[in-house]
Amino acid sequence: MSPREAILALNLLPSFGPVRITRLLEAFGDAQTVLSAPAKSLLRVEGIGPETAKLITSWQDHVDPAKELAEAEERGIAIITREDPSYPKHLLQAYDAPILLYVWGEITARDRHAISVVGSRRATTYGVNATRKLTYQLAHAGFTIVSGLARGIDTAAHEAALAAKGRTIAVVGSGLGRLYPPENLALAEKIADGNGAVISEFPLHKAPDKQTFPMRNRIVAAWCQALLVTECPAWSGSLITANLASEYGKPIFAVPGPIDKPSSAGCHQLIRDGATLVSDASHIIDDMGELPFARTELPLMESQDEPELPPEEAAVLAAMPAGDEMAIDTLIQHSGLPSSAVTAALFKLELRRLVRPLPGFRFIRR
Fold it and tell me: Lowest mean pLDDT: which of 189-198, 234-243, 310-319?
């Protein structure tokens, strides 16, 4: 048995979580030794009782890791462990980090620059629009968007990231062979097709239940550099995710909503408890320090040299003398571009931190 099959066998055993598996690995050194250990040795490990020890010693009667690996390969799903270079580094900082991840798609180095976006499944039009706006801006700025592929806010976040031609990670609360919710299969396929990854820590055919979703939420909370909650009621699971992210030391951002709507009560509570109020992605970007990949995909003006920009952005920037405030109407006139093109270019230049907005629809070159 290979080391990968051995760790997979432990993960396949029912009622085994990452904390108990980690204790076993620390006690015995590797998964192969755990599976071959006698019951009396297993019982010395904290949290391992007679029934659990019996389950481990008879693991071959319960699971078939070779079959699981073969099916995953047939479906185009990779299985990565904590030792693999592609395993997300932020997850390793969590005490209950997943033992392994099933990955449909690809995890890349840039995905460590991530913002998790969560909110209500029963999203309002206001919540969906706010999510789309902020997530589009963040994805365009270079952040990978992490969410849970659920209905409502999660779906809006993934779709906006794709619309911005950015990357997104969908963490699901079921096995990838039983994707939930099923109506998001097409969205999951689009994510996996070169735009990010759909991941799970559960066996391929694990059905979603009341335990799998909180476990999924801790991955969403641990993966990111910061967590954004765009809409949720006072009893939402998004608040649990926010609490987990706070425990992991991640900054929390929340979008305010109408004061008379229960759908905004959770965000308002987070803001009262110290979360940063957000109405524009620049609030998050400023707090994060700088844009991901600022010197390549989204160049900053770090010297007197002009950055290489798309033609419309270059034309708008060239129409702005350094240090002079300019109204948007003046920029339209000087650049010779239509108003829609100037507005879009200004938004992108603002994300690149090459221009700064001022009151009265005026802009100044940084």
Answer: 310-319
